[in-house]
Specification:
By secondary structure, this protein is α/β, with parallel strands linked by helices. About 35% of the residues lie in helices and about 25% in strands. The protein has one domain: Nucleotidyltransferase, domain 5, CATH 3.30.420. The relative contact order is 0.24.
């Protein structure tokens, strides 16, 4: 049972697939305008039980797109809206776990560092894990 987590935004959207244990299977950041095409492709490639959509910025448009895709593709996945409050802050340690600081930065506490790239994909992991009941929120 895989869950697709989506952290929607105005310009970019984080996507992540996690398995039933919460382990990251796949993740990406895509332009929000391409959300429908990417989700359609994922529905064809992965066995998804649920689609967990963060219920904040851009979620109503994303929900409409996903509901339409689930109907037209006859996918068995169910859409659920998940509280994404503080998901970006929770995503920071996930980023540094996957990309540990190197050189002199490894001596700087992680709480004082900012990821050098967008972390919307890790925020989508947080959303998916919340849907599993394995995260905060």
């Amino acid at each position: 049972m895989n869950i697709l987590g989506i952290d929607p935004g105005r310009q970019k959207t984080g996507l992540a697939i996690v398995d039933e244990s919460g382990a990251i299977v796949w993740r990406a950041i895509v332009p929000s305008a391409e959300l429908g095409a990417v989700v359609e492709e994922l529905l064809g490639k992965w066995p998804l039980a649920r689609v967990a959509l963060g219920g904040s910025t851009g979620s109503s448009l994303a929900a409409c797109i996903i509901e339409t895709l689930l109907e037209t593709t006859r996918a068995s996945a169910k859409l659920e809206i998940v509280n994404e409050r503080d998901s970006t802050q929770e995503a920071r340690p996930l980023y540094f776990e996957a990309h540990p600081p190197r050189g002199w930065k490894r001596f700087v506490p992680l709480g004082l560092q900012c990821p050098p790239e967008p972390i919307d994909d890790f925020a989508a992991v947080v959303v998916a894990r919340r849907a599993l009941g394995k995260g905060e929120g």
